[in-house]
Amino acid sequence: MGKRRFMSDISIEDVKRYVEQNIGSFHRARLESLKTLRLTSILQRKNPYLFKAKNILLAQDLVKTLLDAYLSSQEETLFGDFLEGLAIFINGKVYGGWKSTAQGIDLEFDKDGTRFILAIKSGPNWGNSSQIRKMKDDFRKAQQTLRTGNSRLRVTAVNGCCYGRDRRPDKGDYYKYCGQMFWEFISGNPDLYLKIIKPLGYSARRKNSEFQNKYSQIVNRFTSEFSRKFVTKGEINWESLVQFNSAKTKATAKS
Questions:
Q1: Among residues 126, 137, 114, which one has the least CA distance to residue 185?
Q2: What per-residue string of b and e applies to 178-192 under the rule 16 or more CB within 10 Å gives b?
Q3: Domain-located, residue 255
Q4: Does some domain include residue 139?
Q5: pLDDT for 135-154, tens place per residue?
Q6: 77 occurs within a structural domain
Q7: Phi, psi (5° rounding) for residue 99?
Q8: What is the pLDDT of residues 73-131, one digit of tens each?
Q9: How many CB atoms lie within 10 A of CB 30?
Q10: Residue of 191, 159, 162 whose CA lies nearest to 179
Q11: Could you tell me if 62 and 236 are in contact, meaning their C-beta atoms sit under 8 angstroms apart?
Q12: Contact call for residues 127 and 136 (beta carbons, < 8 A)
């Protein structure tokens, strides 16, 4: 069992260095998600009836709405991966924790005679009932595997969420710690959730400028493409768009 280490083993400077060395991967992934994106792929994933109900009249407004919805979902996933890495790094410094090899488990560490296994998510509302059942099944299997080698080992499962709150953390067969509770749990520092926000802005202005330049190019290109395929006599051709999105046989947009 790992020897407990203390919060004095990590400082905000450690966190700052980690962010500076790793935040670039998040920004690169954001740009790559734009470079590989196709208008047809997002048109096929989104609900055309919703956008008609919102009375969107301008092609550029529709393109921006579709693109922003797609990017918001992508960025939540990408940044969640970054925060997971940060959490594992911090816990490793404090308690000697490590990236787990068990399916569905992100972090393991020993504290006060207990082996903790964590599934780390971005926020508290991350999954539906079947996804939560899958997480609980992963917890059960990991606990069984760990106890195979040591039947007396006390194993506690935790769903850690990087932001938000859950006022009922005891879920019976696992705990759910969100926001401040999560960061304090993995670090022993009740103020860490506040301290990590400043380093996250490292080079953000320059990186966001690069992203906005590429974003503008994509909006202009997609608007031009959308207008060629789905605008008739100056108006969005909603029937053509719905056919492309939902017809029994795959519809081909006009070129």
A1: 114
A2: bbbbbbbbbbbbeeb
A3: no
A4: yes
A5: 999 999 999 999 997 888 99
A6: yes
A7: -65, 125
A8: 888 888 989 999 999 999 999 999 999 999 999 999 999 999 999 999 999 999 899 99
A9: 20
A10: 162
A11: yes
A12: no
